[in-house]
What does this fold into?
Amino acid sequence: MMKTGTADRIKVWDPLVRLFHWTLVISFTVAYVTGEEGDLVHFYSGYVIAGLLLFRLVWGFIGSRHARFADFVRSPREVIEYTRSLFSGHPRRYLGHNPAGGVMVILLLLSLSGTVVTGLMLDPAFDSVVLEGSVSNRVLLGDDDEERGEGYEEEDDEREGGMEGPGGEGNEVVEEWHEVLANLTLLLVILHIAGVVVSSRLHRENLVRAMITGYKPRDPEA
Ligand code: HEM
Ligand code: HEM
It folds into this structure.
């Protein structure tokens, strides 16, 4: 069981949620800025995010109390009521994610998942991963067309010119979607950070610090 803290502070975020969050912040930043570049760093940061999302999915069911989806996914009615209460100046305080924050967490996770899935579909290894291992291995170990036989040359040429995966027009559609989803995620992140700032002010508590230390004051007004 998690330690619940001293008299004036309560443990809210377990270490894995905090590690998840700040690793995600770093890897998302790296993935976003290396998108145009389309190099191995982009692939690796994308794979890291894929792993983080899988972890978070599992942790949403078996994690500590406030990490669970059941703790912060609320009915639309509760979300509306909470949002209304924000304007009253006395919003109800939640120890974990508030109902509006909960919606944002789910939107972020879905948008990130869409970005990662379309990214993986652009990975040249996507349709040959079973035969040859990941693209990263191939790039690191060097390509060997003779061993792999016909049909890969074109793909390799394309990859040298950029980071195009196999396939023609279908791939461009996926690339469009990948770009749209990456930018949608960025937009959500901006709203997310704005939400954190506004919530912190209204509740007179530092939510960012809580995501670093894991603790929230028992009574922020005190
Ligand atoms: C959340 C994670 C990710 C983010 C934020 C992200 C972001 C981006 C961005 C902003 C672009 C540039 C789009 C453009 O302007 O054309 C891009 C392109 C691309 N990404 Fe990702 N990406 C992610 C994950 C992945 C993954 C997991 C892979 C594959 C393993 C991947 C493969 C690619 C490829 C192949 C391109 C095309 C580059 C080109 O235009 O030639 N991405 N990504
Ligand atoms: C420096 C920028 C950021 C700051 C200061 C920040 C801050 C926070 C804070 C304070 C929380 C807890 C909210 C609450 O108390 O209810 C949180 C949660 C979360 N943030 Fe961020 N965030 C940042 C960037 C990002 C980015 C870039 C992403 C995704 C790409 C992200 C995704 C999430 C997710 C998924 C959660 C839910 C955590 C969980 O329950 O696992 N954040 N963030």
Q: What stands out?
A: The first helix runs from residue 15 to 33. The longest strand covers residues 9-11.
